[in-house]
Amino acid sequence: MKNILAVIPARAGSKRIPKKNIIPLAGKPMIAWTIEAALASGIFEDVLVSTDSEEIAALSRQLGAQAPFLRDPEDATDSAPIAIATFNAMLRMQEYKKKNYNIVVQLMPNCPTRTDNDITMALDNFNKTGTEFQVSVFKFGWMNPWWALMAGKDNGPPRPLFPRQIKMRSQDLEELYCPSGAVWIAKTGALEREKTFYSRNYKIFTLKWENAVDIDTADDFALAELILSVRAKNK
């Protein structure tokens, strides 16, 4: 396919897990899992790593991605919206390559368990639905958000987040989905207009939970490493 750009946002300033994007995970730097999946999908004209770190950029180039420039400082702060950073990276890539992209696919490197097949299926669904925005999700399973409790203040009793649903049987509750940064897709003109993937009419694409792990904590890291290690042994 033509005119489709993959953007892998890889900021250096992770607080909870320092150097999160490049630390070893199941035998590879974490970002390698996302770069390899993007390249193996075969659907992208270019795979761009958007980073403020020359160390990450150099590693990304070694792994086969493109990183011809560093991210603008204003797009690398803790408060910078990732959607805006992705769009700005796309604009710079268009200028650098002297061409335009019709679709941009944002692949977060802290979602290393997503596969190349997940990416191709997500794009196929995006094209079939004709939507302008699509966000990857997974369905909640054994953790039921409908029964969530908020800690009581001053050692008081916990308060249910959903007082009505907490009294209902699980089989009578609506299914809930959790967003995952694995594969987010947008038409570039729509992203320029909305400045977010969460437009009024965005669609979702469901992944298996084990392919949609977002690594933000040490526990997430351990889970992803277990999934990738078991997957490697079963090949």
From TrEMBL:
The keyword Transferase applies. The keyword Nucleotidyltransferase applies. Keywords: Nucleotidyltransferase, Transferase. It comes from the Bacteria. Pfam families: CTP_transf_3 (PF02348). One of its GO terms (molecular function) is N-acylneuraminate cytidylyltransferase activity. Signal peptide: none annotated. This is Acylneuraminate cytidylyltransferase. It comes from Candidatus Ghiorseimicrobium undicola.
